[in-house]
Structure formats: C-alpha cells, structure tokens
Fold:
Amino acid sequence: MAKRIIGLDGGGTKTLGVMIDENGRLLARATGDSSNIQAIGAERLGESLAGLIAELVAIAGCRQEEVDHLYAGLAGAGRPADREAISAQVTSRGLARAHTIDTDASAALAGAFGGGPGIIVISGTGSICFGKDEKGTLYRCGGWGFKLGDEGSGYYIGQQALMAALKDLDGRGPETVLRGHYEKRYHLASIDLIISQIYSDKIDRTEIASNAPTVFAAAQEGDAAARQIIESAGREIGRLVAGAAKRMGREGGEVAVALIGSIFNQRDVLMPFMREEALKVVRSAEFIEPRFEPAIGSCIMGLQKEGVAVSPQLLANLEKALV
Structure:
C-alpha cells in the first residue's frame, strides 16, 4: 500500500492540513484552529491537531493508524523544548505512526523549492529570511521581532510612516500626506495625539502594519517621505537576502529567492531596491513565486523522512493534483 503523509502548516490563527500519498496524489485537505504553542499552550494545541487530523483521515477514507508520517511545520516551534512538548501531544494521542515537529519556516522553504535548496523571504506583519543549502542545512537571517527587527515588513513600513508624520509636525522632515492619513484614520485633531494610543498598545503592531498599503499608494502618488520609506523597505529586504546568501557561502554566486507574504503584492515597486542590495553580495538573484504552499512542503519533508525519493515526476504529479 502506498505510504500516506500528512503535512501541516500551522500558525497563530489557523492550521492548514494536507494528506498525500507517495505518488503525489492528493488524498485530503482541511483547515483547523491555531497550532502555535506560544499562543495556546500544549494541551489546546494537541486538541487542535487531533481535530484536524481526524477530519483529514475521514475525508481520505482511512484510519489514523494508517497515516505513515505526520510532518508538522508550526509557528512557535523554534525551540527544542517546545517541539518536545508538541511531540508528546502527538504521541499520546496516537495521531500517526511516525511524526516530525518542525518550524513553519522549514515547511515554507521545502514548499517553495520542492524540497531542494534556495532562499525564502517572508514579509507580512513581520519579516524573516531563511536559506537552505544542498546539504539541507538551514540558515536564518533577521526575524528578530518588531522591537529588534522586522525590517522591510508591513510593521516597519507603518512605523516609518508614523515617524515621518511626526517629523512633518516637528518641521524636521518633509511635508507628507501620511500625516493627514493618520489624523483622519484615528480621528485626531493633531498627529501628536496618537502617542498615548501607541504606547498603551491600543494601536498595536498589527494595526500599525495595516497602514502599509496607504504608504505604497502615497509613494505611487509621488510623496517624498513615502517613496523614501518604500525604498528603505526594499533595501532592507535585499539585505536579508544578501545576509542569508553570505551565511550560505554564496558570495559571488547565484541564488533563487522565493517571496512569501502580503508585502510582495507590491513586489514591482520593491524589486529594484531588493535586487540592488542582493547584488552587492551575489552575482545573480532570481526572485520567484514559491512552487508549492508550506503545507505541501511539510508533505515533501514527510516523504523524505519515510525514505521516499522526491523525484521530478512526483513533484509534477503534485502540481497536477493541486490545480
């Protein structure tokens, strides 16, 4: 009987689960609740995974004990102690014959490049970059959170725009339409009245990030402050790529970079600056769409764990199954 693999892509709000067989046939697909142990704790995470896997096996028409490998790529599973706690939940509930707990970044990388080497940049509310070489070694660059990093992210763009609005008020920066945007959006008589809402977290990092589309629009209209912010964001993303490439020993070489996240809806505006920074380290950088979503990446990693060769034909079968 063909091996059955479940791959998960888990985050703070939802978890996507996919079941495939070793020939690349899609057997089931379902969405469950949060599976971030930092947000919900180990016990609730176990319940969430159990419910999702029960749904997947029901759709596939098989039993849990017939699932050969569960590969879970989960947000919040970066530390060994957390992976062990999640593993204990999977084991105690008998969710699969074998399992691997990994990070969502590993799943995203495997999906983007069909299990092969490459670099991914994720930029949404936050930002982070990962690379994987031919030996399977993982390299991280950035992703140190909104207090210490997240450069080039939606949060970064929104934060820089807010700072530009305040500098406009001070007279130490150019006049910008961003000042009027914030005053109108948050019903402020003057931009400086936003300060208490920022420092009390009434306007939190997610809310700050939600202003990024306005900054892109203002840059498109020629606003000098907005254009400077978008250029800075693009360059910061390019530096993430350059840093990962350097750590991977790719200086002067070629890299393929998959772009993931909402900020890359505006990739055409960011690309010249991203490329310029990346090319300070590498000879060539090809920016691409991910080949597969992270849940499929988890499936691919699960197949590899079971000793199944991930051939071009298997990947082609997967692509056909997902159309």
Summary: The longest helix spans residues 37-60. The first strand starts at residue 4 and ends at 10. The radius of gyration is 22 Å.
